[in-house]
Amino acid sequence: MLASSRRRLALSAAALLMGVVAAGCSNTNERMRSALHAVTPYKVEVVQGNVVTKEQVDQLRAGMSRQQVRELLGTPLLADIFHANRWDYVFTIKRQGVEPQQRRLTVFFSGETLERFDGDTMPSEEEFVAGLDARQFSGKVPVLEATEDQLKKHEGKADAPVQGDASRSLAPLPPSYPPLESR
After folding, report:
1. pLDDT tens figures, 45-85
2. Bias category Basic and acidic residues: which stretches (predicted)?
3. Is there a domain that residue 54 lies in?
């Protein structure tokens, strides 16, 4: 009888130990799952095409030459030989955690001059820059120009020698770069 009660006690202890181990494993599995959900793989930002802003579109005028349009908007993403009188400017950006953006502008020519253009409503440069940072909710773009007071404060500092530079002397540059391949 003593042996059977020891056996029951040992089985009860083993069952209790297995229950504790199983409970510990389920907590560990839950912790592992939550940790894996917190870690996301890096997704590369994909930016394709030309950024065309409202300010650029406002400068387009019928009668402009192809060269003037290219200087204003850049090289088109699509210039098809089968549609020689049409240039397509397409801009797409895909970023992690942000809805993908796509904008299109099509420019139509009659011979060598701009006839018309059609496309999506383009954001201003300020709106585009503000929309780049998904974490930024203020929508305000910092001032990118220095005031007169800020310029006066730094006047003459660019020409003044920095302390400690007198001891350093720069090696003269070679008259030309060596050839990439020698034959």
Report:
1. 788 888 898 999 999 999 999 999 999 999 888 888 888 89
2. 149-158
3. yes
pTM for the model: 0.49
Based on the fold, state whether residues 111 and 77 are members of the same structural domain: yes
3-state secondary structure 127-172: HHHHHHCCCCCCCCCCCCCCCHHHHHHCCCCCCCCCCCCCCCCCCC
Q: What is the C-alpha separation between 87 and 168, in angstroms, rounded?
A: 54
| Tally of domains in the chain | 2
Rounded to the nearest integer, the mean pLDDT of the chain is 77
In a domain, residue 176? The reply is no
Residue ranges making up the domain that contains 28: 8-39
At 170, the pLDDT band (50, 70, 90 cuts) reads low
| DSSP secondary structure letters along 33-76 | HHHHHH-------EEEE----HHHHHH--TT-BHHHHHHHH-S-
pLDDT tens profile 114-136: 999 999 888 888 888 877 765 54
Domain membership flag for residue 50: yes
Which CATH number covers residue 70? 3.30.1450.10
